[in-house]
Write a structure and sequence with these properties.
- There is one protein chain.
- It contains eleven helices and nine strands.
- By secondary structure, it is an alpha+beta fold.
- The protein is globular and about 85 Å long.
């Protein structure tokens, strides 16, 4: 033992010093976890950490710091915690289920339920609009964005916006309550939406990308459209979209165009012409408030997690809580 260490040991013995909070925290190992959560995106500048703006990630990160899951030293630099997100939602977009992975201080994996309870308490008290469904231990190499197989989204819109004859004049609550979409209009909307299914170049359905950008080629697996009536007796249309991944504003532009083509009875083939052209065509965004990330799917990677002794990541077991959360 060096002279410096000996003197330090004697000093601690004589003075009866105890380790500081930071010294204790440094002894607690950091382990990677998956945080499964839902959130209301209203009032947030999107999902991704973007100081000084308030985002979903910054709110969650600050809550983790407040319950000592992140050390004071690492609280100043989010990159030191290896934070990753499965899906980056835009400003004002909601999520019933999303997943963030990062490294947190953890003495015992059995304390994850305690951490979830503490986090939900902090998030609820602050009125954040965030809700933690579960926190899972995962392996070190887990990259939630890359290993996510696909994602389900849902968009809700008032049924009357598809009908040009109804929305020509001023609307009132009585008109909205009486209106029910016809099968003809609904079939037209489904037919237009079906043009998005498959692998296409969606360069006209995002921002700051050209037709030669390979990242614009995206694969949409399924689109399901169904009318539903909410508690105020107003008919809404639920559009559920299943795809591998979506670009910034892609879904909102897809829905905006589909609504326009249905409302004014333009050919469904208009969608395909926007895939084929190299010309950049402006398509406005449908409102962010109607869009919700339903849940991500990790089917392929779950097999690996099970082999490594971890629980698979599935949102189905929280479906009832997530549906109740969506109605709020």
């Amino acid at each position: 033992m060096s002279l410096k260490a000996i003197l330090s040991s004697i000093k601690k013995t004589l003075l009866g010093t105890t380790p500081t909070t930071n010294e204790v925290i440094r002894k607690i190992p950091k382990r990677r976890v998956a945080i499964m959560l839902g959130y209301r995106g209203t009032g947030y500048y999107g999902m991704q950490y973007n100081p000084p703006r308030e985002t979903i990630e910054s709110t969650l990160f600050n809550a983790l710091v407040s319950v000592d899951a992140i050390s004071e030293k690492n609280s100043l630099d989010i990159s030191k915690n290896g934070l990753m997100r499965t899906a980056r939602t835009d400003k004002g977009v909601h999520a019933a289920g999303n997943l963030i992975s990062l490294k947190v201080l953890m003495k015992d994996p059995n304390t994850l339920n305690e951490l979830k309870t503490k986090l939900n308490g902090v998030l609820s008290e602050s009125g954040s609009g965030l809700k933690i469904w579960d926190i899972r231990r995962i392996n070190k190499s887990f990259n939630c964005r890359k290993v996510c197989s696909s994602r389900w989204y849902e968009y809700l819109l008032p049924a009357c916006v598809l009908d040009n004859t109804v929305t020509r004049g001023p609307l009132n609550l009585d008109i909205l309550k009486k209106y029910r979409v016809s099968d003809t209009i609904l079939n037209k909307f489904q037919n237009v939406s079906n043009q998005y299914i498959g692998s296409h170049n969606f360069h006209n359905f995002t921002v700051k990308k050209t037709s030669t950008d390979l990242s614009c080629k995206r694969y949409v697996k399924k689109i399901i459209i169904a009318p539903l009536v909410d508690m105020n007796n107003i008919e809404w249309i639920s559009v559920r979209l299943h795809g591998q991944s979506f670009m910034m504003n892609q879904i909102r532009k897809m829905l905006s165009l589909a609504i326009y083509l249905t409302r004014y009875d333009y050919p469904s083939s208009t969608v395909n012409s926007l895939f084929a052209t190299d010309i950049k065509v402006y398509i406005p965004n449908a409102p962010a408030s109607g869009l919700l990330l339903d849940f991500p799917i990790f089917d392929a990677y779950n097999e690996k997690l099970i082999k490594l002794g971890y629980s698979p990541i599935e949102f189905n077991q929280y479906r009832k809580k997530m549906n109740d959360f969506k109605k709020k």
